[in-house]
Design goal:
By secondary structure, the chain is of the alpha+beta class. The protein is built from eight helices and 20 strands. The chain has helices at about 55-65, 105-115, 120-135, 150-165, 180-200, 210-215, 235-240, 245-250; strands at about 20-30, 30-40, 45-50, 70-75, 80, 90-95, 170-175, 200-205, 220-225, 225-230, 250-265, 265-270, 275-280, 290-295, 300-305, 315-325, 330-335, 340-345, 360-365, 370-375.
Length: about 375
């Protein structure tokens, strides 16, 4: 099977792509884990595969690494077809979730292990070791064993082992999943820095949207073995292509209703709380059931009667403040609506005094958010 033109892969032109996948499919008996995936990744791109457990992202990564062979499709790395090549001939580095460090080997021995497997001479191994120790701030830890290292240090050793052979691309399979939140945040910044300094593509598998949004240039959201949406992280976040993406990326309120009128790009949606001005959903008509998603941070809450003039360019809902969840620089305001459901508003803690049981008004710009026909949600 020949690879389609690069410009046709995922609708994005990527000349001299570092990695290309064409119609890649992997089945395990009756289960299709990955189905007809097309993808092109640029030479210096940080690319995230984001999705829930069982969506196919790790299987796809293993296909790229050569640990799984696709039933159909083609894999190219730096223009070379590698679909049938074993992992050691693909010039790909890999970092696993559980680090997989050899407990009986020192830091230095763990890091240079790939070079030993490649039968590199001692001079080459020593030169590469010195370079990677400096890059990942591991100098002085060479003689220690894994059990003598912190979690962050172990993670850096695993990264060093994946990078020491200067691979054509680095694959990372949820490498921060076992770290605590503070250390994970530090490592997100560090991994992004390594990628920018090395100028090689990183392909990063995660189910954590914050990791994907922090580090990546582009994101592919996976669901049931397929790409639900692929694009720049800002595009994925602000313009979800489906109800699944709207709920999986970011934190959004969901309001169900019926379209009553469509005027260009704006539609009126009748729901339990009244009428809202929403974006016109693709393929929907007046009378159709729809689901509307509006992110927590796009809403504003104020006390009822405070600056309460209704503007034509705002949606407005009345409710009662049920709870305030303080989160440091932000707070989540839980608003109970008269018909029984809740809205969540994420904002900076207000100087205006708000207390549970206070009547409040929630406002947000008309036409913002995302709306989808209920049958496609």
């Amino acid at each position: 099977m020949s690879l389609p033109p690069i410009g046709s892969i995922a609708g994005v032109a990527v000349p001299n792509a570092a990695l290309e996948l064409a119609s890649v499919t992997r089945r395990f008996g009756p289960v299709t884990a990955v189905e007809r995936i097309d993808l092109a990744i640029a030479q210096e791109e940080f690319f995230a595969l984001l999705g829930p457990s069982g969506s196919g992202k790790t299987t796809l990564l293993r296909i790229i690494a050569g640990l799984e062979r696709p039933n159909e499709g083609e894999v190219r790395i730096a223009g070379q077809v590698v679909t049938d090549l074993p992992p050691y001939r693909r010039h790909v580095g890999m970092v696993f979730q559980n680090f997989l460090l050899f407990p009986h080997k020192t830091v230095a021995e763990n890091i240079v292990f790939p070079l030993r497997m490649q039968k590199q001479g001692k001079a080459k191994r020593d030169a590469q070791l010195g370079w990677i120790l400096d890059l990942l701030h591991l100098r002085g830890l060479e003689a220690r064993y894994p059990h003598e290292l912190s979690g962050g240090q172990q993670q850096r050793v695993a990264l060093a082992r994946g990078l020491i052979s200067r691979p054509a691309l680095l694959l990372l399979d949820e490498p921060l999943a076992n770290l605590d939140r503070e250390l994970r945040s530090e490592m997100e910044v560090e991994i992004r820095r390594y990628q920018k300094e090395l100028k090689i593509p990183f392909i990063y598998v995660t189910h954590n949207q914050e990791e994907a949004l922090t580090m990546s240039d582009r994101i592919a959201v996976m669901r049931d073995g397929r790409f639900e949406q692929i694009g720049a992280k800002t595009e994925i976040y602000t313009n979800p292509a489906s109800a699944f993406v709207a709920t999986f990326v970011g934190h959004a309120n969901r309001l169900d209703g019926e379209l009553t009128e469509i005027d260009g790009a704006i539609a009126r949606m009748k729901w339990a709380g009244g009428v809202l001005l929403v974006p016109k959903p693709s393929g929907a008509n007046a009378g159709d059931r729809v689901r509307y998603f509006i992110k927590h941070e796009d809403l504003e809450v104020t006390p009822a009667g405070h600056n309460g003039v209704i503007a034509n360019d705002l949606n407005q809902v009345s409710g009662t403040l049920r709870d305030i969840i303080f989160k440091g620089q932000t707070a989540n305001y839980i608003i109970a609506l008269p018909h029984g459901s809740d809205l969540v508003v994420s904002d900076t803690p207000r100087s205006v005094s708000l207390r549970p049981s206070d009547p409040v008004i929630v406002r947000w710009p008309a036409g913002s958010g995302a709306c989808f026909a209920a049958e496609s949600a």
